[in-house]
């Protein structure tokens, strides 16, 4: 494989991984909206779309976790502890935001690599910038963990805990600063 094809392959892998994160997370959010519409006894088919459009992910998470135990349908499986569900969903959102709210670019003249910059002003010292190599492997692994978290309502506690732990690790790896020579 020549150098140009290798660059294209790496670019495509990054784009595919980011796309998988976006799509997998949107399914989590859509299913939260669907579950919430049932918990709220909303009758119209479009109600889940209204919830999807009107509420932030965090609001949906908080409301589902608050209502689930007292309003779930008798036929629904017993989920993992709601505290574990909340932790998993919040970790999923943190990972998704870390991936999609980053700036990706190619750097280096001798050996170009995909880089990622993440900016934040929500720190005690003001602006924080984290620059590092775009860790495509962590983005891919995180996308797979999102698939497991998506099924939180199936009651598989150990799988959910493991996916949450993996996703948290992926977020940390994405947030580390790496110097490129």
Short description:
The chain has helices at about 5-40, 45-55, 55-70, 80-100, 135-150, 155-175, and strands spanning about 105, 115-120, 130-135. With about 180 residues, the chain is mainly alpha-helical.
Question: What this model shows, in words?
Answer:
Strand 2 (113-120) and strand 3 form a beta hairpin. The chain has helices at 3-39, 47-54, 57-71, 82-100, 136-149, 157-175; strands at 103-107, 113-120, 128-133. The chain contains 6 helices and 3 strands; from the N terminus they run ααααβββαα. The chain is elongated. A 3-stranded antiparallel beta sheet has the order 1-2-3. The protein is mainly alpha-helical and 181 residues long.
SSE map:
Elements: H1 3-39, H2 47-54, H3 57-71, H4 82-100, E1 103-107, E2 113-120, E3 128-133, H5 136-149, H6 157-175
Helix pairs in contact: 1-2, 1-3, 1-4, 1-5, 3-4, 4-5, 4-6, 5-6
| Structure summary, number of beta strands | 3
Q: What is the 3D form?
A: elongated
Strand order of the largest sheet: 1-2-3
Question: Mean pLDDT across all residues, rounded?
Answer: 88
How would a textbook summarize the main sheet? Answer: 3 strands, antiparallel
Cα-atom Rg, whole angstroms?
19 Å
Provide keyphrases for this structure.
62% helix; mainly alpha; elongated; three-stranded antiparallel β-sheet; 6 helices; 181 residues; 3 strands
């Amino acid at each position: 494989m020549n150098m140009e094809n290798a660059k294209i392959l790496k670019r495509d892998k990054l784009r595919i991984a980011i796309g998988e994160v976006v799509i997998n997370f949107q399914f989590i959010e859509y299913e939260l909206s669907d579950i919430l519409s049932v918990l709220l006894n909303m009758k119209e088919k479009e109600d889940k779309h209204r919830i999807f459009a009107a509420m932030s992910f965090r609001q949906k998470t908080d409301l589902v976790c608050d209502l689930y135990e007292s309003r779930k349908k008798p036929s629904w499986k017993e989920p993992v502890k709601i505290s574990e569900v909340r932790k998993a969903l919040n970790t999923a959102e943190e990972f998704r935001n870390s991936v999609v709210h980053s700036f990706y670019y190619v750097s280096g003249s001798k050996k170009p690599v995909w880089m990622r910059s993440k900016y934040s002003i929500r720190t005690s010292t003001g602006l924080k910038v984290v620059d590092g190599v775009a860790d495509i492997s962590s983005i891919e692994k995180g996308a797979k963990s999102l698939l497991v978290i998506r099924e939180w309502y199936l009651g598989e506690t150990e799988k959910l805990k493991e996916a949450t732990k993996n996703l948290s690790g992926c977020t940390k790896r994405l947030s580390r600063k790496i110097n490129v020579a």
